[in-house]
Design goal:
Length: 301
């Protein structure tokens, strides 16, 4: 594989790879250090991460990123659209803040993460792990509405992120969601780690639903740790603390075939490295980021 073979893939990283899950948390590195180190590691693209972690003033954020040679690929929002119209106003208030900053930074994508069905720390059920037929309908129509309004008001494309411990997780549920939504309004952010965590095959998904893939998150799962997590019924947060998401190329899925399949879509795609590591020692992320960037260059990206 030559470097030119993946010329439609743009590689970046995200605050997640520096152990950042929250706008403000004493266990996380300060945002200037993240920006310094992500640039030092060789990445040119970043995501905003949790809204409020990076500066939310567009002029200041533009200055901070530009002087480090960084550009923003996407913002991220969290939704619970299966709960129906009652949550729309609160959802839109959150989305509009993030979308405005995302657009101001010149990005074109908004990553949409569904709500968790169990508490990320205690494993307590927040709601049923499976949606009813009516909740599936509300999820589909609500996501289409979100895609339409984000496009009309902010000129952004939404990409929905299948995620562990959410209702859009397994191959079956991802397919059901895609089949129920309009391809013109709703595409996927395929996270290779989360999809493998939930038993999915990323290459198969790209080959089957290629026109629905709008964005990639690159990560790998340690299969030995995953087996323990599944056996013990561990929620996602504690699973991360056990090291279920690992540094490539030590885990699954192999990223070279995923990137090759994505290149075959003949579309320009972002592929953003996201190695869940919350919490982690402050000196841990940079060496991993350097090695991961070198590894991806060896894959042709």
């Amino acid at each position: 594989m030559t470097a030119a073979s993946l010329d439609r893939i743009r590689i970046g990283s995200a605050p997640d790879s520096w152990g950042v899950w929250f706008p403000d948390d004493p266990q996380q590195v300060p945002w200037p250090r993240f920006l310094d180190e992500v640039a030092e590691a060789g990445y040119a693209w970043i995501e905003l991460g949790p809204y409020g972690y990076l500066p939310t003033d567009p002029a200041r954020l533009a200055e901070e990123t530009a002087r480090r040679g960084l550009s923003v690929s996407a913002g991220t929002v969290f939704t619970a659209l299966h709960r129906g119209p009652a949550v729309w106003d609160a959802t839109w208030a959150h989305v509009s803040e993030v979308a405005a900053l995302t657009r101001a930074m010149g990005a074109r994508h908004l990553v949409v993460i569904p709500s968790f069905w169990r508490d990320d720390k205690t494993a307590e059920l927040i709601e049923a792990p499976e949606l009813t037929a009516e909740q599936w309908r509300l999820l589909a129509t609500g996501t289409e509405r979100l895609g339409r309004e984000v496009k009309e008001r902010y000129g952004l494309d939404i990409v929905v992120h299948p995620h562990a411990d959410t209702h859009i997780d397994t191959e079956e549920n991802v397919a059901r969601f895609l089949d129920a939504t309009d391809p013109e309004l709703v595409r996927l952010c395929l996270d290779t780690g989360h999809y493998a965590y939930c038993g999915g095959d990323s290459v198969k998904l790209i080959e089957t639903y290629g026109e629905r893939i709008g964005y990639l998150h690159l990560k790998q799962v340690d299969p030995a740790v995953l087996a323990e997590v599944v056996r013990d019924g561990v929620p996602f947060g504690p699973a991360v603390r056990r090291g279920v998401m690992c540094e490539p190329p030590a885990g699954i899925p192999a990223l070279e075939p995923v990137l090759t399949a994505a290149q075959g879509l003949d579309a320009d795609l972002f592929a953003i490295v996201e190695q869940d590591m919350y919490p982690c020692p402050p000196d841990q992320p940079l060496p991993i980021a350097r090695r991961t960037r070198r590894y991806l260059r060896g894959c042709g990206a």
